[in-house]
Amino acid sequence: MAATSARKGGAIGLSEPDRRRGVITVTVATIFLYLSLYLYVPFLPLRAAELGASNTMIGAIIAGFAVGQVVLRLPIGIGADLIGRRKPFAVGSLVLATLGGLGLALAPNPGMLLAARLLTGASVAGWVAITILFSSYYRPEETSKAMSRIMTVWASGLVLGTFSGGIVADLFGVKATFWGAVGAGVIGTALIMSAPEPVMEKTGRYGFDTLKTVATSGFLLRLSLIGITVQFVAFATYFAFVPVYAESIGASLSTIGYITTFTLAAAMTGTLLAPFVIARIGYRATIPGTLIVVGAATAAVTLTNSTLPLLITQGIAGLGHGLLSAALMALAALSAVPRLRATAMGLYQSSYGVGVLAGPLVAGFVADGSGLNEVFVITAGVAVVGAGLASITRMPTNTNV
Questions:
Q1: Which of 152, 171, 328, 355 has the fewest CB atoms inside 10 Å of its own CB, making it the most exposed?
Q2: Cα-to-chain-centroid distance, residue 256
Q3: Does residue 4 register a pLDDT over 60?
Q4: CA 23, CA 12: separation in Å to the nearest integer?
Q5: SS3 of 14, please?
Q6: Which of 80, 53, 74, 77 is CA-nearest to residue 64?
Q7: How many CA atoms are closer than 13 Å to the CA of 103, on its beta-carbon side?
Q8: What tens digit of pLDDT does each residue of 39-87 get?
Q9: Are 148 and 326 in contact (CB under 8 A)?
Q10: Which residue intervals of 173-252 are DSSP H helices?
């Protein structure tokens, strides 16, 4: 009876109580993962500058977060589908987040800060396994709902992390945020290790032809290119040079933290609104239209000279980023059959990691060469390019790709 009930619930070999426990456990572990990864994010550029880093080096440190994502996400997705298990990779993600936080706390110079940042990037590569593990607790036809929910959890972790980071930095100093990340990583590791894992149905052999089928999907490749532009904008601006810009117009440490928190709270709202917006106007209007709005908000940063207008621009950008992230993740998951979804998600997430890498790197070079204002103008242009690509991509009319 348990197996039958579990099969109807989409998780083979799990009873309904275990399925619910899995949803709750992975949800809370995800929040602690992103607490560990984002408690210090608003202050990482400032910490790097304090240790003597140039704007170019600051960009490299922020971009270091992407290296592991680009290199490891596809292998993790392939490995998870190959062995039919996602949990070992999810556990590894939390362990690396903990070690990365420790490295950031102890780093004596920008070079060591970069090395630790590379480790945190390797950690977040495991997000592939976590998202597919979470969706495996749901029925196949509930994939869009599962992705919307885990993206809301993702955004909640970011909001809680940056908000808590602002308070911790004000009370105990910037360095305390890195030690807080270590503690959050330890708790998250313990939680994810206790999560039940569904047994994956063996419906075919995994080989090179299987990978080729997923990797040559024109739809998935176009989604990946759009995802690159979305992540480029986010990581060039509010994860990198918005804090630097805010400091240049006189914002305090706590205010910088609150701006980032507000941006991420808006992103969380965007993930919650995504299913309703898509149901009303469809993917084809939602994705390019939102990218245009995000581009306009990014360009408008150059017109701000106080924190309130800057806050408004980042709220709009964050709302758009959350909506786009949820929509694109759902489409990426639905582009493959359930047993190959980790591979498809690995390909999509490793591809958009190029945007995470290029965004702060390009922004750092531009900031050193031309100034901060040009960073936001060029980044707005990238958003417009993404909107153009989305407008010529055939999007599904519903959640069934």
A1: 171
A2: 20
A3: no
A4: 15
A5: coil
A6: 53
A7: 20
A8: 888 788 888 888 888 877 887 887 787 787 778 888 888 888 777 788 8
A9: yes
A10: 174-193, 208-215, 218-236, 242-248
pTM over 0.70: yes
- Angle made by CA atoms 248, 251, 252, in degrees to the nearest 5: 125
- Judge whether 166 and 258 are in contact, CB under 8 Å: yes
How many Cβ atoms from other residues are within 10 Å of residue 252's Cβ?
A: 13
Q: How far is CA 348 from CA 215, 236, 300, 352, in A?
A: 9, 20, 30, 6
Task: Give helix 143-172 / helix 127-135 axis angle, nearest 10°.
Answer: 130
Tell me: pLDDT of 33 over 90. yes
Both structure tokens of 83: 């062995």
Answer yes or no: are the C-beta atoms of 150 and 135 closer than 8 Å. Answer: yes
Unique residue bearing structure tokens 């031309």: 370
Residue in this structure with the two tokens 């999810």, named with its chain if needed = 90
Rounded to the nearest 10 degrees, what angle do helices 341-369 and 307-334 cross at? 150
Domains of the chain: 2-391 (1.20.1250.20)
Contact predicate 123/76, CB 8 Å: no
Look at the block and give the residue holding tokens 């900031």: 367
Which of the residue ranges 155-164, 196-205, 298-307 would you say has the lowest mean pLDDT? 196-205
